[in-house]
Amino acid sequence: MRKWGPLTAVSLGTFMLLLDVTIVVVALPDMARALDASLGDLQWVIDGYALALAALLLGVGAAADVLGRRRLNVAGTALFAVASLACGLASDAELLVAARALQGVGAAAMFATTLPLLGAAYQGRDRSIALGVWGAVSGASAALGPIVGGVLTEGPGWRWIFFVNLPVSVASIALTLRVVPESRAPAGRRVDWAGTAAFAGFAGAGTYGVLRGGSDGWTSGVTVGAFALSALALLCFVLVERRAAHPLLDLQLLREPAFTGVLLGAVGYNAAAFGVIPYLSIWLQTVLGMSPVRGSLVLLPLAATSFVVAAVGGRLLHGVAPRLVIGCGLLLIGAGGLCMAVLDAGSSWAALIPGLTLAGVGTGLVAPGLAGAALAAVPPVNAGMAGGAVNTFRQLGYAVGVALFGTVLTSRMAESLGHDAAHTVAGGGADALRGTVSGHAVRAAFADGLNGASLAAGVTGLVAGALVLVMVRTPGRRAAGPSTSAAASPSAAAGPPVAVRARRG
User: Fold this and answer.
1) Distance of CA 312 to CAs 305, 307, 327, 431, Å?
2) pTM
3) Which runs of E-coded beta strand occur in 86-180?
4) Cα–Cα 20 to 30 A to 263, which of 179, 245, 270, 273?
């Protein structure tokens, strides 16, 4: 226990967080019914978590370097547990969204410290073993998430997908305090809180603008105001980072086409691969009438295929240029999205399998190599910053993808059902329209909306793949240290990846 205790403690937290991400997708229809939640509420249940991770990952990671990584990991786990309890007890959608955002804050502290803690606890061969086990646990948790979520939702109820975090959090905290050594970065580093706040404003306001654009119109005052606030926050972020002694993101790195290409690929990857999944889950359960367990099994080919491809591809594709692996993987994800855009009123769940499987193959190729390609595109001294930036942009891509494709979905559905009815059906409320809209009309409209969303996701994947193939041409520079191996791990290949901040170089 003394030797492998740190790995066990870190793996417990990782398992819990990745399980929590994929569990939520399956439980969305039940949440909508229990809390009378709208489509926008359900989108924020997902995006509140993802945006908190994306916005705070780099800043909290820098704070951990100064304050102590174990201390912040324990604090993050405790906050995650409290937020999970609040999620499970939420009496309305607004409280659930707020608690999910709080979960994201705790998760950012946990994931920003995971790899540095393992790097400080293990050396040499033990470090390689620890990172390999951590990757396997991460992949397994993401693959099991939909199934466990379906079982809990169909059994004791959706609230238990949050309550189950409590005993795991207690065990993780107790073990971390007992066996994980404290570690810090060299003295003299400061935390760029101004940059963190500006980036959070940019990401949050921009995503809010996309969501409101779908419901209120793109020229409404709220939508335009949100985008204006996002642009102002981005300008502030640029000005702050140019003057900061220890910036979250050195803007000079964006002058390197290879690094910029990887960041664009990261955004497109998470959006294209996972942005439509929540709406597929709602369609499977509320329109096709499948149970949460059966609905989760339909989505399993994406997770299982990506996990297998990531494990096997790492050996078979060793030495192949990262831009080819990542670029072609994104093209496959895009092709998978296009393959799912073939639904009609009579389609069954089987129509999704080819597209999900194809996207899973692409995901298995892309996920292991993104962070490694970013690290290869920058000097070794910027390895931690590059790894953190990639994972931040991945989470941002997921949040924007859920918002954008939801807007496409409802816009297509509104053409036949009308604005209000489209949002009701997309939010899991198809039963509420019985007697006013025929079941065939609902099935046809939802299928048409999913076709539009899948088409948009497919185009996103194809464009991202093309950008990576064109821009990521700089010969790689090997970045030393545990962050490279860990960030390139296939761990996140099996599901919507949760951001992990690489150890600062």
Assistant:
1) 11, 9, 18, 44
2) 0.86
3) none
4) 245
